Design the sequence.
């Protein structure tokens, strides 16, 4: 799979700078079977993250829709849903801002949804969506919906981004749209795969960071300038730590696939986020304006990564991690 995916990305010549281009590329990946990743906690978690990192280093917009699609497939499998239609592409949309809610109700024995869903990456170019909605008892329920139906309206609102522009993470309006329930109320957040998938996002951050680091490595190999070498040393050390964290983390998930991994996820995401920000800073200072202005791949990654990193909730996530750490015994840290 690694070699096939690498070959596919190397052959992907068309620029991925529109939602339509991302959607077409994702469909081609699905047709080639490149979306069939090992499930989290299956014994091959690291291989799953390696694929995500590889796509991230190629293009973060593509990675956003690819990660959402593969996470949707894993979620459907985990919750015992029926197999997806052949060739289908999926978005997974679970943001719940207070001003955008979708409601589920039963009408004549069938389920349908109505309301607004925000932050829907790839909304206009995927065939199906997996999204969180609210049932009549106030519970959060996951539903699957065919996007090619009457009553589905993908808006042009809610996405003014420069970085990650092509993902078009816009609002969707649903008006009495038939859907299928997936799992039971509350299952989406309760399942082990929720936090396992959250670590997969960190693998995407890492993939973009190491590709930016490679730009600096190639520069330093051609011209041994002392400051650039010092920045490269800092990048090397930072990526070494993040890489080892992801390797150890994958092993822990594979050893205990049904365990609560929320703390593991929060720690891993915090570390990889910090490393990605260090890499952005060091690479930019070492290379100057040149690649930001003249290298389209570097420029795109550098603009996209800060936006993608904001899937972290910064100090709010660190506060939750601190609350957990405050309850641990002092012997938690020594070697």
Sequence:
């Amino acid at each position: 799979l690694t070699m096939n995916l690498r070959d596919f990305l190397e052959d992907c010549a068309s620029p991925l700078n529109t939602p339509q281009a991302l959607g077409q590329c994702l469909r081609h990946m699905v047709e080639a079977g490149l979306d069939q990743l090992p499930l989290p906690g299956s014994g091959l978690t690291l291989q799953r993250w390696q694929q995500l990192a590889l796509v991230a280093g190629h293009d973060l917009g593509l990675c956003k829709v690819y990660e959402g699609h593969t996470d949707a497939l894993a979620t459907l499998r985990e919750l015992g849903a029926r197999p997806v239609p052949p060739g289908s592409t999926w978005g997974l949309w679970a943001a719940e801002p207070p001003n955008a809610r979708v409601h589920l109700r039963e009408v004549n024995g069938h389920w349908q949804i109505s309301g607004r869903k925000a932050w829907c990456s790839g909304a206009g170019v995927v065939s199906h969506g997996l999204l969180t909605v609210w049932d009549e008892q106030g519970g959060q329920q996951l539903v699957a919906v065919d996007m090619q139906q009457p009553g589905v309206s993908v808006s042009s609102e809610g996405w003014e981004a420069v970085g990650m522009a092509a993902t078009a993470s816009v609002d969707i309006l649903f008006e009495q749209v038939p859907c299928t329930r997936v799992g039971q109320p509350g299952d989406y957040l309760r399942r082990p795969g929720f936090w396992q998938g959250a670590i997969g996002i960190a693998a995407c951050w890492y993939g973009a960071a190491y590709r930016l680091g490679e730009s600096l490595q190639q520069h330093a190999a051609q011209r041994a300038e002392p400051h650039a070498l010092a920045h490269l040393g800092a990048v090397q050390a930072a990526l070494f730590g993040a890489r080892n964290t992801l390797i150890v983390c994958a092993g822990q998930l594979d050893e205990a696939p049904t365990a609560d991994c929320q703390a593991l996820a929060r720690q891993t995401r915090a570390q990889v986020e910090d490393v990605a920000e260090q890499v952005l800073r060091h690479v930019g200072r070492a290379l100057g304006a040149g690649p930001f202005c003249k290298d389209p791949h570097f420029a795109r990654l550098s603009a996209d990564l800060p936006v993608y990193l904001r899937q972290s909730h910064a100090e709010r996530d660190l506060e939750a991690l601190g609350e957990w750490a405050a309850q641990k015994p002092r012997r938690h840290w020594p070697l």
